[in-house]
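Customer escalation, tier 2.

The customer says the design service returned an amino acid string that "doesn't look like it belongs to this structure." They asked us to rerun it and document both sides in this ticket. The original structure tokens are below, unchanged.
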């Protein structure tokens, strides 16, 4: 069993999860959970992270909405960027399929599914996972930054300028742009290159577990702490500690992180002995931290300590010149899996015009899917378009905002204001979820409502859909 690849299975229907665990047990070490929170807790306890994840979109507390599933996709990739996530869901509308793939899922399988097909798709993604683990993905001198656009040249210059500085660096950018790669480049090009470089995701744990991860803990400090354990600050020593998604760091831990940044002192959870760290801190976030400071969600003093040096990683739509270079790079990397396809003229134009809301991560996954579907073929625009995320809701909203469109709508008869307002509300919520990459807290802020209100609205809209 120990030699089997591991699979995280997340589904709240016990009949489905138990059946799948049974039929997959010969090929995978299956870890079964029913909710997003259970999945996050499990990942903390596993000695080896799962290779693959098979998740349903409709999870408690909102099983009729895909929101929890979308959030779990983002969180799993944040916790472990190498994991391959496959969606197994009955909520298989075209919009849900596209959005899940944009967030970083590698496949979408509608329920009910053929078990033989499911096994084949899982084994295909496992093959890709193993290839990525055994291939050197980047040349150290280039740090894996692909692109010749002005935005990328500026980024390289900033990395070179900041690499040897002892000050903290704050890396900002959208999900999927490669913030962790930039952080690793700062370490690799610094005088600390031969020292440890550790990455901790601040959005992946509860506050207690996150504190234990950062600072370590004494035996018996909390339930499950059967032995004493060093934290990331201690293990990083004089190297580099990358704090991913720093905007998710709870306020009580922000004060403790500030203390380390100011004088290097910290305490293990459950201890009174002062310990010291001289690790360099590189923080990254897809949030606008200045807005978090204004709203009281992030400490002003910590923000100023972290943002002594700031790097903005450009989204892919600002570096159109690099889209073909990235295409070529991922085709070559996955060449032994049949990704050496070509685009016809119209498909190439569509590729260049597409905005890639999921950025480089989305582009990579599209290359893999196209290679699996059309190995060695000339791909047309009609074959490419189903892989691209369409801004349907945004286009609908523009149409509704047109006075001429409103007049036409009223004159058609059978007009119902309640129905129109309901659809308008649904459109705004869907667009907010896309902009926030499925993060409900961020979507609620965009909409100007609290998270609880957003939950209730999504549940109401879901019921109206059924």
């Amino acid at each position: 069993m120990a030699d089997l690849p591991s699979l995280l299975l997340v589904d709240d229907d016990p009949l489905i999860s138990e059946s799948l665990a049974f039929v997959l047990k010969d090929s995978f070490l299956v870890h079964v959970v029913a909710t997003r929170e259970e999945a996050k807790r499990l990942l903390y306890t596993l000695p080896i992270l799962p290779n693959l994840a098979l998740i349903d979109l409709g999870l408690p507390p909102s099983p009729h909405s895909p929101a929890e599933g979308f959030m779990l996709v983002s969180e799993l990739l944040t916790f472990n960027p190498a994991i391959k996530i496959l969606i197994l869901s009955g909520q298989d509308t075209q919009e849900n399929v596209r959005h899940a793939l944009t967030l970083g899922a590698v496949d979408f399988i509608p329920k009910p599914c053929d078990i033989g097909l499911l096994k084949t798709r899982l084994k295909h993604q496992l093959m890709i996972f193993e290839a990525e683990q055994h291939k050197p993905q980047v040349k150290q001198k280039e740090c894996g930054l692909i692109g010749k656009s002005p935005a990328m040249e500026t980024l390289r210059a900033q990395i070179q300028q900041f690499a040897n500085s002892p000050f903290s660096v704050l890396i900002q950018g959208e999900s999927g742009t490669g913030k962790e790669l930039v952080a690793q480049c700062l370490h690799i090009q610094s005088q600390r290159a031969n020292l440890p470089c550790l990455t901790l995701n601040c959005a992946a744990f509860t506050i207690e577990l996150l504190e234990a991860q950062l600072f370590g803990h004494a035996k018996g400090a909390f339930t499950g702490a059967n032995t004493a354990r060093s934290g990331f600050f201690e293990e990083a020593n004089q190297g580099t500690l990358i704090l991913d998604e720093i905007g998710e760091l709870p306020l009580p831990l922000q004060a403790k992180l500030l203390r380390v940044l100011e004088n290097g002192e910290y305490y293990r959870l459950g201890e009174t002995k002062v310990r010291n760290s001289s690790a360099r801190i590189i923080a990254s976030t897809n949030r606008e931290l200045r807005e978090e400071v204004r709203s009281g969600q992030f400490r002003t003093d910590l923000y100023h300590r972290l943002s002594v040096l700031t790097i903005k990683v450009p989204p892919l739509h600002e570096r159109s010149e690099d889209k073909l270079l990235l295409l070529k790079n991922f085709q070559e990397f996955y060449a032994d899996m049949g990704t050496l396809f070509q685009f016809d003229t119209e498909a190439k134009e569509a590729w260049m015009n597409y905005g890639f809301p999921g950025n480089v991560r989305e582009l990579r996954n599209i290359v893999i899917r196209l290679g699996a579907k059309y190995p060695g073929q000339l791909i047309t625009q009609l074959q490419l378009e189903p892989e691209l995320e369409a801004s349907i809701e945004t286009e609908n909203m523009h149409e509704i905002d047109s006075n001429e469109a409103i007049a036409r709508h009223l004159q058609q008869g059978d007009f119902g204001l309640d129905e129109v307002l309901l659809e308008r509300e649904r459109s705004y919520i869907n667009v907010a979820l896309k902009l926030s990459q499925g993060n409900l807290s961020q979507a609620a802020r965009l909409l100007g409502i609290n998270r609880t209100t957003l939950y209730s609205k999504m549940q109401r809209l879901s019921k109206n859909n059924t």
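Tier 2 assessment: The sequence is consistent with the input. The longest strand covers residues 84-89. The first helix runs from residue 14 to 24. Sent an explanation to the customer and offered a walkthrough call.
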